[in-house]
Amino acid sequence: MMDATKYAPGYYPVPAGYDSWVKKDHIEKAPAWCSVDLRDGNQALIVPMSLEEKLEFFQMLVKIGFKEIEVGFPAASDTEYEFLRTLIEKNMIPEDVTVQVLTQCRDHIIRKTFEAVKGAPRAVIHFYNSTSVAQREQVFHKSKEEIKQIATDGAKLVKQLSQEYEGNFLFEYSPESFTGTEVDYAVDVCNAVLDIMQPTPDRPMIINLPVTVEMSMPHVYANQIEYCDKHLKYRDSVIISTHPHNDRGTGVACAELAVLAGAQRVECCLFGNGERTGNVDAVTLAMNMYSHGVDPKLDFSDMPDICATYERVTRMHIYERTPYAGQLVFAAFSGSHQDAIAKGMAFRKEHGEHRWTCPYIPVDPHDIGRTYDADVIRINSQSGKGGIGFVLEQNYGYNLPPKMREALGYKVKSVSDHSHKELSANEVLHIFEDAFLNRCKPLNVLEAHFAQVGGITATVTLELNGQRKVVTSVGNGRLDAVANAIQSATGMEFHLETYSEHSLDEGSTSRAASYVGLVWGDNTVTWGAGTDTDIIVAGIKALVSAINNK
Q1: SS3 call for 160
Q2: Percentage helix, strand, coil for the chain under 3-state DSSP, each rounded to 5
Q3: Domains in the chain, start-ordered, CATH in brackets?
Q4: Residue 82: CA atoms inside 13 Å, Cβ hemisphere, count?
Q5: Which residues have a Cβ under 8 Å from the Cβ of 52 and sit 6 or more positions away?
Q6: What is the pLDDT of residue 424?
Q7: What is this structure's pTM?
Q8: What are residue 3's phi and psi, to 5 degrees?
Q9: Average pLDDT, the chain
């Protein structure tokens, strides 16, 4: 049995009155983004990235559009140190990109960090110490004043060394484990650091308020952010940053509400990589903004390539239902969903819609390099006629009548059900072809000649079970005349209920596709399809196919 009495809220809510952010309903402007993939993300990997892999990942982050990239904890390992030196010495840092390095507020670690970052064209020195009640009591055994002293001593050394070493340095401070810290105390520590660093509007300092461990519901964190927004000194010279982890599964909500509450910057990882349950997912945050019509300033237009690179160099798997990026996030298996999507796509095409409003799909898959045929309508035993018909139309141009889509749907679902697998678009095509298209046994029409005498007279050469027969009959159109000829020659009784046709290809040699539905004397319905460069021949083939399906 689980024992809930072991637990109680470990966070410290702010006083009432710091919740004006609730009046906002969406983010209107993208925050500054800082990728921490190469530090927080990398340190959480079972096998950390090699130097070559880190360089490739860095270049991918630059291509996506990150302007701030935390490249590591250079005092932690030789690989981290070498990676940073390689970036600097080989001039691999673009002019508009700022690298960031992390260091604890410890003398020798700060000094080694400056050794690693010297000569950088532009670098953020991110220093931190833990301030939470649990860490003060259980880890450091220090008072509030002693913990604050660690922060201010670190700030003094960082400032001193920034003047001694070559490089263009900016600064960031984090009261680590902020979520377990009394908020007024966290502000006190941050303000003490700010007094030392003396930021200006021209050279602002980042104050990062991390969700080192998620301990509260997201709105509590947002209230804490708004409190800090109102009480930090040098506010016009301070960039409030957030660094959410996902321990309670609400990292995205924490980040979004924090931005509403005054945070101007978000530290994040691709696909939620990072310690324990991971850092907040940069992809989800950015694409959520995109879906509201806000330019996130990050480019995920080639999501498949980004996913492939990420999985290869991190050796991590992107869960199939990861928002926007997972293999199944645009997939519709349900028949009703498929039908709605197909109709939505048709509406969009018919009305020339620019704005995306398609049911069940929050963003256009094409925007991030996904396709409708492979990613949206997925065919299995749960699929409906609308989705199956959509797959045929999108991939192969066949636009079946609604009732014929239903007939095909039953066949496709039966195949999927009995094989216990999803079917590809090509497999759906083969089922359609085998069941309905250009079927010429046991009956076939070898020739048909027409004359306009008392309507349309058709002279038809039939082959039934290997026996040939020539029959002449009259009808109110060519296809009706052929149908009457077949009935006269065979004794069959059916009624031509449905007929439709369309061009299948473009150009002078394009094929026509025809569809025929027949109602028989016993009220059963059969369907057939035919294709030919001659529209009349295509119609006859469809008729014959429908007869052969009796």
Answers
A1: helix
A2: 45, 20, 35
A3: 33-314 (3.20.20.70), 335-435 (no CATH), 443-548 (3.30.160.270)
A4: 10
A5: none
A6: 85
A7: 0.80
A8: -120, 95
A9: 94
